[in-house]
Please model this.
Amino acid sequence: MMSASSSSSSSNPMSREDATLLPSIDDKYGGVRTEMTHPMDPSLFSSLLRASLSNWTLQGKKGVWIKLPKHLIGLAESAVKEGFWFHHAEKDYLMLAYWIPKDVHTLPANASHRVRIGAYVINHNKEVLVVQEKTGQFQGQGIWKFPTGVVNEGEDIHDGSVREVKEETGVDTEFVQILAFRQTHKTFFEKSDLFFVCMLKPLSLEINAQESEIEAAQWMPWEEYTKQPFVQKHELLRYMTDICSAKTDGGYEGSTPIRVSAPDQQGAPDQQGNLYYNTRDLHSRH
Amino acid sequence: MMSASSSSSSSNPMSREDATLLPSIDDKYGGVRTEMTHPMDPSLFSSLLRASLSNWTLQGKKGVWIKLPKHLIGLAESAVKEGFWFHHAEKDYLMLAYWIPKDVHTLPANASHRVRIGAYVINHNKEVLVVQEKTGQFQGQGIWKFPTGVVNEGEDIHDGSVREVKEETGVDTEFVQILAFRQTHKTFFEKSDLFFVCMLKPLSLEINAQESEIEAAQWMPWEEYTKQPFVQKHELLRYMTDICSAKTDGGYEGSTPIRVSAPDQQGAPDQQGNLYYNTRDLHSRH
Model:
């Protein structure tokens, strides 16, 4: 058996020609990836996996990834018995990982943070856009708060803030800047949370509260918002109102995004991303 | 069978008294959590799970969590057949989730971002702390770059930056502020990346480069660092050098952390966290 027989050409990325090895593709980092798509007897999977691992070892491969869709989770036990661990999981699949060399693995860490936004939207009458939520801690307490939400997978923070405001209140907005952000830990299981306070400029005023999540939404005089006992009570909210006031009154500068390309950490072509920084302070120098 | 028999009292959180139901504890959000710890025949697990789901449904429970340690992954197939999906996985366990009500679930999203730091450490001679890495894209190319690293699970960003600099170079530092941050997507699989550029003040000068990851480390004159073709070539690095220069020359303000408590989004007691904001602009108003 040729040691290269399990590696695929780019025209045939998941070759099954050699039935004694698992189909795999080489990754860019000296490792291999296998994605199981069809049911297989677990004992057959075990023997193919063992043969494949021997083969990958001979080839000097490092990391091994096995992606198991939900309906093939019955194969996971075989991989665990060969020393695989869980790298991450999404709704429909589990990703298992293994490191062939004897040294410490250099596989990327699993995602550790959720990203959320809170939206500060104030109109020309110094009224702030606030909502009462149907679920969660604050339901039924008459507390008016900024629209908040989770940034979707793959979504830019600023896009997420505009989308959440639109979904919850029907108000169109333009992103201005990130005023502050907060990191907390163990917000759910072992995961952490990054919460970005975004300032947005309203482009429309009419409110259409989202039925599923929002009890009520309104434009509320800023002073009235800040006087709520709920806002006064919590340290974070007092800071947030101070920062928002400082922004509206002028003089406070947060972080504004610009689109920049950057070298990929894994050696891929330059990546596009958003760099958020204090544009006023930087550009005032030029 | 009493419908309450699967719920535990706080003194006996994982009661096994009733062998026809899975042990579970109520969570704070109207759901239940089951953590499997001992091997069980998959067909027994299936029948216990079905009985438990009926029971939880009668009780009006919403979310159901099943945590399976790696060595019990053989039970996952039974849960998938009952309609469970994967919520997340860590090295040693898979968390499965299920939503009993007919409406859209309100379970928290899986973590979507990794958090990394880059450290700008400059001494009184205007020399910047730079490293050459042993692995990755830049190995063997003679490129000097800022120390970078992944923030650990549960670690504050500023603590992560101080730790990474110490690990990679042996230099002790004090965190100053976050100068800028960048969000990129699909940096590994579907996950996103938040990269925080941190300024740190050196507290020691002697360098002890980390053997496993770092080829070399040195204090390099700032001008020499910025003149590297690698730095000149990449848009992100040009911005970063401009921002770092603006910080050192004075006038540029980033985000400084303060410890604040905040209302927990899930209704738990107030959480401690770090709020990062432009302290200069806020405090200059007072």
User: Anything to note?
Assistant: Chain B touches chain A through 94 residues (CB under 8 Å). The longest helix of chain B spans residues 42-58. Chain B is about 25% helix and 35% strand. The helical segments of chain B are 42-58, 76-81, 157-169, 222-227, 229-233, 235-248, 279-283.
